[in-house]
Design a protein that fits this description.
mainly beta, Immunoglobulin-like, four-stranded mixed sheet, 1 helix, calcium, repeat, membrane
Length: 580
């Protein structure tokens, strides 16, 4: 082992003596910051420099971006054991320190920079091996087809990465070779000598070479010649004659077939035909669908025909391509055709001006008030008679001639709003055809319902003798329409004679508490009247009757008489104790 280590050091020393180099042309020197330039790809085990140690330093330590390539011997010999690659790392930042016999740093560390110099060791490459482009026929020479881009990993802006492009081969060579060129340095592919025609050759294949000073790489380009739109659609005939249809012909019906042809390349935007109606159909009643395979046009009905507004229509079609025509080519009379549409009359039912008519009135309008009206028209101009259907409450009547609608009975929002009926319009004479529309009457609320108890408070009692004042909570409501905040009732005793024994206190807008003022009650029935006011316009009141029996049943009954006390007795169906 000693002999082997000695031979290794001897080998490094010989390499150092033969090839050693360093900053300022020196091969060895003291420990200080230094920079070395080394070409990539050189043989390994090359000596870079020998650092000299000053006592008490006896050895050296190497750290930093060594990548397991750079090594320093105990004697201070710095070398690399593998070939360097600039494309992997162009600069290695190292640190060297001098250590004493105990491994303690006594000098440094100092920065050592290794700059890896480029050699041409990378072949230029294209982004892909095959490209595809296109050129329109009749395009002028010089038109760009596209740009090819290759890359070289060697150092930029040097001779190692300077690239040249050229066309190696063109196939087929029809009508001649050299139809294309590529810019030597930019890689732009262009049309060179003349315009191309698809009927001569629809496709060309080029072999492109990119090279640096030492390497070459090939790629392949397919160029498709695209047809241009230099032919116009031509109708097979310019006049499709007369066509007679009844005005009730179904929507969606195909009524005519038209045909034009185009000599451009099939199944392209240059040969596809679109048919447009340019005259005679301002209402858009007709449309034309095109078969994409045959360019046949099918004329269909999109909206109902109408004898009364368009008995005869002179329809004109235009056939055109979605692709613009080339400069100098224009559509002419061959791309136009016509036909005459004759619509015959059919007796039709009256037509309402709206599907749904709507009106809004207050629910307390006087009987005989006009609440709305409807209108309909007969296409043939016949008179119309109006009638109602579905007036289940008998609230409305309609004027048979004018369509005005009147109230004939008191209206009630709480019974139903909106109130919906059907209106029938029937032609007078002819076939007596009729049609139906809806009439919706929205009733606006008025304050016409007095307050009442929200539920039946029966079977309640206090226990005698009362040990403490007792109370009960009750809830009020009414049937009128309220805002989102709900009703705001006020509560009071219905008679001044009750105030010594009872009191009413409001809890919120719908709830109140009835309480005893003392405990000195006899064991008998008591009648308590509660007045509830809704504060509406006009204000309405309800009288709540609370008859009770101490140690027995307390009865609750509400009276709806406006402003009048009316108390009825009731029989208890169940018994529930009140709080006391």
């Amino acid at each position: 082992m000693i002999l082997q280590a000695h031979l290794h050091s001897l080998c490094l020393l010989m390499l150092y003596l033969a090839t050693g180099y360093g900053q300022e042309g020196k091969f060895s020197g003291p420990l200080k910051p230094m920079t070395f330039s080394i070409y990539e790809g050189q043989e390994p085990s090359q000596i870079i420099f020998q650092f000299k140690a000053n006592p008490p330093a006896v050895t050296f330590e190497l750290t930093g971006e060594t990548d397991n390539i750079f090594v320093i011997e105990r004697e201070g010999l710095l070398y690399y054991n593998r070939a360097l690659d600039r494309e992997t790392r162009s600069t290695h930042n190292l640190q060297v320190a001098a250590l004493d016999a105990n491994g303690i740093i006594v000098e440094g560390p100092v920065p050592i920079t290794i700059e890896v110099k480029d050699i041409n060791d990378n072949r230029p490459t294209f982004l892909q091996s095959k490209y595809e482009g296109s050129v329109r026929q009749n395009s002028r020479p010089g038109n760009s087809i596209g740009t090819l881009t290759a890359h070289d990993r060697d150092e930029e802006n040097t001779a190692n990465s300077f690239l040249n492009y050229r066309i190696v081969e063109q196939t087929p060579k029809l009508p001649m070779d050299g139809l294309f060129l590529i810019q030597t340095y930019a890689g732009m592919l262009q049309l060179a000598k003349q315009s191309l025609k698809k009927q001569d050759t629809p496709q060309y294949n080029l072999t492109i070479e990119v090279s640096d000073k030492d390497f070459k790489t090939l790629c392949f380009v397919q160029i498709n010649v695209i047809d241009i739109n230099d032919q116009i659609p031509i109708f097979e005939k310019s006049d499709y004659g007369n066509l007679t249809l009844a005005e009730d012909t179904n929507i969606g019906s195909t009524i005519l077939t038209i045909q034009a042809t185009d000599a451009d390349e099939p199944f392209t935007g240059s040969s596809k035909i679109l048919y447009h109606i340019i005259k005679g159909d301002s209402e858009g009643r007709l449309g034309v669908d095109t078969d994409p395979h045959t360019n046949t046009g099918y004329v269909i009905i999109k909206k109902p025909l109408d004898f009364e507004t368009a008995a005869v229509s002179n329809i004109v079609f235009k056939a055109e391509n979605p692709e613009p025509l080339v400069f100098g080519v224009k559509y002419n009379a061959s791309s136009f055709a016509k036909f005459t549409l004759i619509v015959t009359d059919v007796n039709e039912a009256p037509q309402f001006s709206q599907h749904v008519f709507q009106a809004k009135v207050s629910e307390d309008v006087a009987i005989g008030t006009k609440v709305g009206n409807v209108t309909a028209k007969d296409p043939e101009g016949l008179d119309i008679s109006y009638s109602l259907r579905g007036d289940t409450r008998g609230w409305l009547k309609i004027d048979h001639v004018t369509g005005e609608i009147f109230s004939v009975a008191p209206l009630d929002r709480e019974a139903g709003s909106p109130y919906r009926v059907q209106v029938v319009a029937t032609e007078v004479g002819g076939s007596s055809l009729s049609s139906v529309s809806e009439f919706h009457l929205i009733l606006m609320d008025v304050n016409d319902n007095p307050p009442r108890l929200a539920k039946d408070y029966t079977g309640l009692f206090f226990c005698h003798p009362l040990s403490a004042p007792g109370s009960l909570i009750f809830e009020a409501t009414d049937d009128d329409q309220h805002l989102f905040r709900g009703p705001h009732f006020t509560f009071s005793l219905g008679s001044g004679s009750l105030q010594n024994d009872w009191e009413v206190s409001k809890i919120n807008g719908t709830h109140a508490r009835l309480s005893t003022r003392h405990t000195d009650f006899e064991e008998r029935a008591y009648v308590v009247l509660i007045r509830i006011n809704d504060g509406g316009r006009p204000p309405l009141e309800g009288i709540v009757s609370l008859p009770g029996i101490i140690l027995a049943v307390v009865f609750i009954r509400i009276k709806k008489d406006k402003g009048k006390d009316n108390v009825e007795s009731a029989q208890a169906s169940e018994v529930k104790p009140l709080r006391s």
